[in-house]
Amino acid sequence: MSASASDQLFARAQQLIPGGVNSPVRAFRSVGGAPFFTRSAQGATLTTVDGRELVDFVCTWGPAIHGHNHPRIKAAIADALERGTSFGTPNPYEVEMAELIVSFFPSVQKVRMCSSGTEATMSAVRLARGFTKRDKIIKFAGCYHGHSDSLLVAAGSGALTHGYPDSAGVPAAFARETVVLAFNDPAALDAAFAANPGQIAAVILEPYIGNVGFIRAEPGFLQHVRAATARAGTVLIFDEVMTGFRLSRGGVQELEHIVPDLTCLGKIIGGGLPVGAFGGRAEIMDHLAPLGLVYQAGTLSGNPLALAAGIAQLRLLDEVKPYARLDALGSQVCAAAAAAAKAKGLPLQTPQCGSMFSLFFNENPVRDMPTALASDAKLFGRFFRACLDGGVYLPPSAYEAWFLSTAHEGPAIARACDVITDAIAGL
Ligand SMILES: *Cc1c(COP(=O)(O)O)cnc(C)c1O
After folding, report:
1. Going by CA atoms, what residue is nearest to atom 15 of ligand 1?
2. What does the pLDDT look like over 104-140, one tens digit per residue?
3. Residue 2: per-residue pLDDT
4. What per-residue confidence (pLDDT) applies to 271?
5. In total, how many domains does the chain have?
6. Strand order through the sheet with 356-357
7. Residue owning the nearest CA to atom 5 of ligand 1
8. Do residues 314 and 328 share a domain?
9. Ligand 1: which residues within 6 Å by Cβ?
10. What residues make up the domain containing 181?
11. What is the reported pTM?
12. d(CA 180, CA 192)
């Protein structure tokens, strides 16, 4: 039998691209097997280069909340393309996008656009350090904030599934400036502040974690973090690159009634093109160059094509108000999986909020990185492959969140629930 088109491409890719991929989790290392290559994506469906159609629960890791290749977003990009791809000067989309972000996120008074979530978190941390004139930051184990040096310590996502949450190449001196704590542990936070008086520039967190599988903050935890950071004069950074615009119009901060000092955005805000943003209190943001001493810049920042896509995506969110529908879809998948696991006698946890959730093969509720890592990842790998054989593409790791779009409504979700049920029955 001749090799599939995906296998042929992967063989060529591995000669030229480290591991054959441009982002590690795509290599399927933690679930086994070789990755498929996608030819096109439409609605809830990916079409592989071999012509297979897969129901997609990754949604390009979050951005595709209206499904892939939505006609309104395509039209917005086409319209922007008529005017040119990049100007290197201010452009009108930047002002429109800033106005939109501020209207979705009341905690954001001023905002700076960049080209990725990594840039947003890296720049927000630098800004917090410049603003407070302090060096140390606190992060939480399992939270992934992109791949900059200070933040790639005990990080989730691809870093975690390769078994090296601490990357090689990060100087120990940098890592020492990053204090890592357990998520959902208010006492540990209090102890860290007590041990480092007047030294913590920022606390950064995913308010609900999406990068070690999906984990919600327990009631009161985020409120505790807000109060503790306010007392210490520490900048509270909510990394809502995944959750922003996805779990509600105004992210987790809206759901939990928290006003962080800075917020990082990405993914959905680019409508599938590369965009990030960070914003917050004007008093802090005004420390950025050219007003202040904290330098941050980008040749393609505020790119007209990317912002046109993002603006169309955000306007569409306000039109279709998808959150109740997405929550019902998420519940439907989790309930189907839970019923199948119960029938099979398998322990399964299904934490969910709206269109983000995870299936953890685990006896106990998952509340932090160690409890997430106690899940049966081998079993998840078999489950993943059974679903893929049945035409359903899940995140290729036991420690990533699943994502839904409005395009999943109807036949896609029904088919996916059947495949998931059969896959669990066959484990
Ligand atoms: C994806 C992600 C990032 C990094 O964004 P990139 O665009 O991949 O650089 C940062 N923080 C969180 C919470 C993310 O999910």
Report:
1. 242
2. 999 999 999 999 999 999 999 999 999 999 999 999 9
3. 75
4. 96
5. 2
6. 352-353, 356-357, 402-403
7. 117
8. no
9. 116-118, 121, 144-146, 206, 210-211, 239, 241-242, 266, 276
10. 71-319
11. 0.97
12. 9
